[in-house]
Amino acid sequence: MNANRIQLTGKDILEKEFKTAMRGYNQEEVDEFLDTVIQDYEAFQQDIEKLRQENERLRKQSDQTRSRSSAPNHQVNYDILKRVSNLEKAVFGKKYDDSE
């Protein structure tokens, strides 16, 4: 939802004045209805703001995850190879060490 398309605020609705006519609508009924509209409108605005914040939080979290996964892990690979080598030496003993 684009903020530029929103034409009314809760305050605009609250302060709206209608002209009265001889056979017009019941003013109290219109006011009660507008009060309900204002409450709904403000609730929607709060929901939109919460969703925007959650969306931003998830974007940041996603960016952090991407940056972590794209980071080089050469050191990790070296450590794993070193551990495998030490494990092979421990399992196969002197025989494996001499074959190198």
TrEMBL record:
Keywords: Cell cycle, Cell division, Cell shape, Coiled coil, Cytoplasm. Residues 56-78 are annotated as: Disordered. One of its GO terms (biological process) is cell division. It is found in: Cytoplasm. Its main location: cytoplasm. Residues 67-76 have a biased composition (Polar residues). GO terms for cellular component: cytoplasm. Residues 56-66 have a biased composition (Basic and acidic residues). PANTHER family: CELL CYCLE PROTEIN GPSB, CELL DIVISION PROTEIN DIVIVA. Belongs to the GpsB family. Forms polymers through the coiled coil domains. Interacts with PBP1, MreC and EzrA. This is Cell cycle protein GpsB. The gene is gpsB.
